[in-house]
Amino acid sequence: MNKLLPFKSGLLATILFFSHSGYATDVLENTPVEGSLFEEAEGSVINEAEGSIIEKAEGSIFEEIVVTAEFRDVNLLDTGNSISVVDSETIHRRGAQHLEQVLNLVPNVNFSSGASRGRFFQIRGIGERSQFIEPVNPSVGILIDGIDFSGIGGAATALDVQQIEIFRGPQGTLFGANALAGLIDMRSNDPSESFEGNFETSFAEYETRTVSGVISGPVTDNLGYRLAVQQHKSDGYVENDFLNRDDTNNIDEQTIRGKLHWQANEELEIKFTGFYLDADNGYDSFSLDNNRHTLSDQPGHDRQESTAFAVESTWKGAEQFDVVSQISYAESNLEYSYDEDWTFTDICSGQPCDGWAYSSFDNYLRDRETKTVDLRLVSKDQGLLFNDTTDWVLGVYYRDQEESLLREYTFNPGDFVSDFDTKNYAIYGRLGSQLTDNLRLISGLRLEYRNADYWDSDGVNNDKGERLWGGRLGLEYHITDNTMVYGLVARGYKAGGVNSDPSLAVSSRSFDMEYMWNFEAGIKGDWLDGTLQTQLALFYQKRRKLQVKQSLVEPISGNDCPCSFTDFIDNAEKGANYGTELEFTWLASDIMQFYGSLGLLRATFKDFESFSHVEADPVNGIAKDLDGREQAHAPSYQFAVGVELALAHNLTAGLELEGKESFYLSPRHNAKTNRYELVNARLNYRLADWELSLWGRNLADRDVIVRGFGSFGNDPRNFYATEPYYQYGEPRIVGGTVKYRF
């Protein structure tokens, strides 16, 4: 089957085919091609690992990268949108086990931890950073094989992932209320036409070990399957000195993916997807001394068990259009807990602070069930409108999510429980009009109604319905066959919500919908006789009614420390996010490839208006005025550059440098991350069906801050004086991987 599949992209679009080893292979004789990393193979190359054919764009040595999260599969360079694609080779090259370990390669994309994994993501400075008792409406949508996992990014493990598509800017037409900032779409590999599989094992420092296996192939002529299983474990990068343990911040994750593709008849294709995740991770990250040595006597957990499936069908029986339906279901049980005092009861015994120390434990048990139905009509050539110049898509969408919470907290006289149920109904459409041979107009509109019902045991009850709309208008002009410029205006939106703390005034419990206008222009194409491929985008985003999370910080009676917090979300009047994004891949020679990305960002609050009873001091029980301040998790720059070299016949090497400027960790305090630059390297050797890789991340062993607080004190030894506290990400880690394909 000569079918185009999007398996390779590198950073922007991987221009070489490395066969997961960094060198080309003769597709007819299965022998290496001497002196070159690239082979044309009559206009296509074969991915031996997956058994698929990948066609190249006509007139280019680059492989054609197909974006699948749009309404139609489309070439990356033919989309007037800022999109990055991270492929399976890039994931393999970095030894990545989770989405968070590849995001630094993508311009203006960030993540927040505060858990064992990065759970929340930010695009162009927009996105949530945490969740405790309050319900959250995500700003960044996350789809895993078409299943909605927005807001619980811990599920984004990298087992057998074909590619990750990251859409920057509002996706109001495509995904609606949960994609104000953008969308992350992860796609795993599909069943292969012939029987194949692989077995892989990795070992690294901190007792890190991974075992995975994949089998794929046909059951009958019209039924194919794929099954992937992985177990990933690590002791983590923290030592608990009080308990004398080095595994209180451990990783223990099992992932299972399964697919069945059934060609029922010539007109009907049905695809079944199953997903299971069992993560039993520890959470013991914060230290009173701001290092990787903790003193907790009750280490926490970051657990998630998710079971999900999706069914996608395509019916081609009509002459004018295809009927595409997608149904998904996901059930997730999450437990998030931590030792709130980060220490042990007797830490002050015999010291001046004797009698000051407190002890508490906080545990959040959250159950979430999400059901979605998406039905759309996609035009064929026979169904084009306006003298056969305009293709079209028309669809309806339904999403039902139920989330319940049980909080067990030392200082609560009884358990806190809440229910948060939301229903979204939408109708959407898009037109693609070919105005001239080189000029195309894209227009889209989505109308959505959302009803949210919240109840909790503290007496807060809120039922809110909202009418929302978003869309896009863009022009795409092809200067040449391989170069396109585009401009667009898009409107995205995010639903309003409720503040769950009962101490807030009734008038302050709800907050309004946020919306944003995105103005963008860009250019994509091939240069230097097809050896250089680039994407460049300039954007300006006007945010209105920004939803901003803050805290009222109040001293407990009889104590000078700011120990009691009232979290709330408020609307700032205006904000502006603007910048530049660049991605490139350059074939410098037959044995050398360079790639890289650069994101420049300026994100500020404007005309901040807070609650009528809230003034401007974050220490004495009142919120902070944010007018003119930079938004959180919005570094002014981030970059990544890399090189791949063929050192010998079957030996390749790679070197990467990535970095970020410092940025605010929250709008409610002044704590910032450190600026950092990280060095990563890889050495890869392949012989027949065996592959051996040695890899290292953060080789200079830089401290990277992934979460932090700056508005309270938690150390009784200095009588709870206010100071910043930080969670550090991955230190230097070196490992090896052995893979066998059959």
Task: Count helical runs.
Answer: 1
The name of the CATH superfamily reads TonB-dependent receptor, beta-barrel domain
Fraction of residues in helix: under 10%
- So what's the CATH class? Mainly Beta
Mean pLDDT: 87
Taking pLDDT < 50 over at least 5 consecutive residues as the criterion, the unreliable ranges are 1-59, 556-562, 611-622
Shape verdict: globular
User: How much of the residues is beta strand, in percent?
Assistant: over 45%
Q: Please describe the biggest sheet, giving its number of strands, its sense, and whether it closes into a barrel.
A: 22 strands, antiparallel, barrel
Sheet/helix structural class:
mainly beta
- Beta-strand segment tally: 39
State the end-to-end distance: 21 Å
CATH architectural group: Beta Barrel
Oligomer: single chain
Q: CATH topology, anyone?
A: Maltoporin, Chain A
How many domains make up the 3D coordinates?
1
- Rg on CA atoms, Å: 26 Å
Quick overview:
This protein is mainly beta.
Describe the protein's architecture and organization.
With 742 residues, this protein is mainly β. The chain has a single domain (44-494, 511-736), classed as TonB-dependent receptor, beta-barrel domain (Maltoporin, Chain A, Beta Barrel), CATH 2.40.170. 1% of the residues lie in helices and 54% in strands. It is built from 1 helix and 39 strands. The chain has one helix spanning 88-94; strands at 44-47, 52-55, 66-67, 74-75, 82-87, 109-112, 120-123, 140-144, 147-148, 161-168, 182-188, 196-204, 208-220, 223-234, 239-240, 251-263, 268-283, 293-294, 300-315, 321-339, 361-379, 390-409, 416-434, 439-456, 461-480, 483-494, 497-498, 510-511, 514-527, 532-555, 562-589, 592-606, 637-648, 651-660, 676-687, 690-697, 705-709, 725-728, 733-741. The chain has a 22-stranded antiparallel beta barrel. A 5-stranded mixed beta sheet has the order 5-10-11-8-9. Strand 8 and strand 9 (147-148) form a beta hairpin. It is globular, with a radius of gyration of 26 Å. Residues 1-59, 556-562 and 611-622 have low confidence and may be disordered.
